[in-house]
Structures are given as C-alpha cells and as structure tokens.
Fold:
Amino acid sequence: MELKSSLVSDLLALAEKLAPNKRWHVETVLRILEVAPGYVREEAVSSLIALVMNASELNTFAVMRLYTACHNDITHQALVQIGAWCIGEYGDLLVSGQCEEEEPITVSENEVLDLLETILISPHSSLSTQGIALTALMKLSTRFSGASLERVRSLIAQYGQNMEVELQQRSCEYSQLFTAYNELRGPLLERMPVVELSTQSAETGEAGAIEDTAAAPIQAAPVAAPVAVAPAPAQEASLLDLLGDSTPAAAPPASQPSSGGGDLLDLLGGLDMSAPAQPAAPAPSMGGGLGGGLLDLLGDMSAPAPAPVAVAPAAAAGIPPMTAFERNGVKVMFNFEKVPNNPNNVVTLNVVTTNANPMPISDYTFSVAVPKVFQLNVQAASGNFVPPSNSGAVTQIIQVANPQRQPLRMRVRLQYNMGGSPVVEQGEINDFPPQV
Structure:
C-alpha cells in the first residue's frame, strides 16, 4: 500500500515537472485519479485542487470527469474531496453540458445534489470530506437555479444538530447566511480567484520552492523546524541573491540532489524532507520556552524571548510594528523586540495573525524564508485556528540572527482553509524598519 502511494506521488510530481501544457497536466492528473484513486495521499488534495483552479479554460472538462469518477465510486477520500470541491465551485458549468474538450454529459441539478447528499451520509466519508461536501452544497445555492435553493437549505439544516461539532458549526453558520445575512451570501460564495503559486509539489501539497528559479539558494524555515534548501546553479542576480559565500556553522546542511532520475527529491529540486539532525548537546537556555529541543541557530544569545501566548507584545523601543501581510481579511502583524549590542544582532519577531472575515480559518500555517546570511529560529504557533471577526489571534515567535548586519529580506507563505476551500498566499517583504 505504502509503496503504491509513493509511486502515485512520484507520478504526480513527474507530471507536474514534465507537463508541456496545462491541458496535458490536467488530463494526466485526472487519469491518475481515475486509475488509482485509493493511492492518492490526502495531503496532495490542496495542490491538485489548485491545479484545476489555475487551468480556468479546463474547469468544465475537469468537473465533468471528476463528477463521473465520484458517481462511480465514493469510497476513496482524496478523489471525493477533490471532486466535491470542484462540483461546488463549478457546478453551474457541470449542469450546462457545454464542454469542447470531450463529449458532454447531461447532468441535472437534482442529480448533483443527490451525489453530494450521498457523500455526506456515506460511512466511507471522513469528517474533512463531509465538511467539503457541506461547503459545496452552500456554494451551489448561488450557482443553481432558485428551484434547487430550498433543497440545499434543507440538506444543510439537517446538520445543525449533528454530533460532530465542526459540521454542526458549519451548518449553523451557513443557515444564518440564508436568513440574517442573505445579502452577503452571493459575494461570500463567489468563485475562487486563480491561485498564483510557484511550482506545486503533488506529494506534499505545498509549494515546491519559495525562491524564484533565478535566485540563489535560501535557508527556508517552515512552522515547526528549520529546513534547508539545496543550492541551485549560479545564475544572474535576483532580489534574493545570497550575500557572501560562508554558511553559518549551526545551520543544518542542505542535502545534495541524487543522480537517480526516479528519486522524488530530484523532482523537488533537492529539498531535504528528512527531519533535521538533533543537536549533540542541549541548546543554551533562552527563556520563554525557546531553548529546549530546537537547534541553536542563533549562536550566543542571552536575550530572553517573550512567551508565545501574548497577542500583542510591546514593540522594541524605537522599532515600530509593521503590517507584513494583509489581503482578503487576513492580516499579519510583526512586532519587534531587540536587545541592543547583542553579538549576533538578533531580532525577535512576534507574529500576530487576525481574521476579519465572518468565517473562521482552520489549518493555518505561516512559513518564512530568508537568504543564507541570516539564521532563523522558528517556534511553533499558538494554534492553527484563527477566529472570525477579529475575535482572536494566532501568535508565533520568529528570531532572526543577522551577524553581518545586512538589510533583512524575507519571503512569507500563508496556508489555510476557509469555508472548506484551501488558500495559499505568499509574498516578499523588503521594507523592514532600518533598526531591524
């Protein structure tokens, strides 16, 4: 089973790497989903959904194929999750029956609702699958005719007293959109915009690399622990070209790409996906829970770090807070703390993420990457659930050592789910306060 799953992941990654065009890529991925649906890992779902979203000219073709596959077999979770999401997003294209890519199929609105209802009550459906199907029903309330509206409302209302709290919460929130906030239902459920991503990794469901293809290697740090990205061939200078040739001794070494063409690490550009080596001795105590099992990437540090539970730590004297990211109601603030004259020029970033949308955010992660002249120490976030309407926040502490005192440059990536739809955002920050 595990071997077959690995082979399917390799095939998906190869299709992504070698695709001559979007049509070929989408057709190949759909064929893999139809032939081996039981071996597609669930973590690949978000990147395969993003593939369909980006191929806007093939949305009708993709949703028809996925509807047929789900109609034939709803026991495989990855296939059903992708199919249910696409049916909710492109259900109006499905029932239109207009597809130039292949012979169109005739599907009525009731047949689509029948399939989603079957997915909801199926014993094979996981909680995540049921949540996606419930959200798909809600989206169809704005994509189908008024004749189907009452049935959609009835199906959603049935889960208002479900034993699963997540389904119950979604049902209650969606039911409110039919009554108290009916005027907001259309704008909230508009079709998702195209996700602008760098190369996707079909195995991990994340962006395969944060850096541009022309950029020199950078040391990337995900949420839980630092990850090293292997050096790319030297090319023309870019915004994140590395300064200098030395690599900090405490940083974990980057894995070298294997020469074997079938190795998945080759497909991912040498990304070291193994766990980082454990330090030989405990890291020096830094206070605030930052010292214990993490690699000591910051050298000699005596400045205590603040506790991660603080929502809005006080900014360091003279360093104003900054808005690192703000889009679609999601806002990330950086508050800075810095001890003067510390030998490694370490600055602590207290990252605060809030959500102004009426719907909560789940499965939230915040990742950063910097050039190799900097060193990162990233602590786990306070949670992965961001409450709606700015009623709470997720906090995280990131420490950056800058012994060469270069201007700080950073790339950030946000990944989360809102209303059952996966979202990936990323950007670049070059305007840090000069005191940083």
In short: Confidence is low (pLDDT under 50) at residues 198-316. DSSP finds eleven helices and ten strands in the chain. The two ends are 50 Å apart (CA to CA).
